[in-house]
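pasting for ref
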Amino acid sequence: MSLKEMQLALKLMGVMGMYEKFHRALQTMKNDSPIFTAAKNVLAMPELANDIDKVFINGVLVLTEVTAATYADVFSKRDLKKLIKFYKSDVGKKFVGHSSYIEEKVMNASTSWMTESITEISSIVLSYSNEINNLKDKMESAVPASTKLH
């Protein structure tokens, strides 16, 4: 991949709103990290909080680099320019503006479906477990007592 492709990929990520998403994810990780929170608020150890913060920031930088490199690998310069043009258009901006809402709806539906599926699969497995136990009982009763190992 060329430098120009990488630059276009980074620009695409910007118009897609990915940097804001990465920032929100970083804030969520920090807020959900008991060690970071304790270091910052309870232990009064700003050095520890800063060192942990560097790990989070480095993760975002790695994620940014991998994402941009992937876009640059998959799309040509021409494709990247067209994608940037799309995301700068009114419909592209609308897509970006609603993408968090769409992602949330899809994630909620996926979570709901997975929960329901697990419940259904558990019921199916349980029904087969009962059948297996019945077969096991039948097999044990079919074997004469004198041949059973104790």
